[in-house]
Amino acid sequence: MKRFLFSAVALTTLAAPAFAADMPPRTYTKAPVYTPPQAIYNWTGFYLGGHLGGAFAGNNSLEGNNGRFLGGVQGGFDYQFAPNWVLGIEAQYSWMDRNTTNFGFPGAAVVTSTGANQLGSVTGRLGYTWGPALLYAKGGYAWRDGNNLGVSVAGAPTGFTTSGNTKDGYTVGAGLEYMFAPNWSAKAEYQYYNFGNTTFTAGPAPVVGSRFNSDEHTVKVGVNYRFGWGGPAASKY
Fold this sequence. Notes:
Strand content: over 45%
Oligomer: single chain
Number of strands: 15
Distance between the termini: 66 Å
Order of helices and strands: HEEEEEEEEEEEEEEE
Strand order of the largest sheet: 2-3-4-7-8-12-13-14
Low-confidence stretches: 230-237
Largest sheet: 8 strands, antiparallel, barrel
Radius of gyration: 36 Å
Helix content: under 10%
Shape: rod-shaped
């Protein structure tokens, strides 16, 4: 019995190396390379902010062509969908320097115009976003505080009437907004305001029938604070 057990142990010892030689080599698996998660930017939410810039009247305007300082506030709501489009609504108010312009006519008639110094708008916004950037267009209702007009002949005030010179109009514009920090974004935009035309329908002969444009071109830069949902969100990874 001892001889049998000894023989079995010896046989096992001799066979083990041969069995190991017949085993396939172990497959080496390389460790995966770590990729940091990417931030997911979400424009959905409410925002408030302020802006600075300049306002310039168009050609043949009762406000002249001098540029004026502009500053104001804005607020709104954006909704991001599908997945790179952003739809929103924005209300904006701007204050401007008030300027006075004189227009001379044959026959010594002078039109004195004191320009509007307040602009407001309520617009829809549609934009396309990639990462932290948002390119958008906007358009909607516009409001101003109106022009103060005066007519004189040889220095004497003269009665007159006008059509147009309204406080209500429309506005369109476009801009680029960039989310530079969580809940903070900066923007630059151009906005055009149109309030129709102002026509003198009665008054001194040289003035009657004269028509002037009532529009504004504005360029603004601003900053928005975005509540709650705005800013870079945590990655899904």
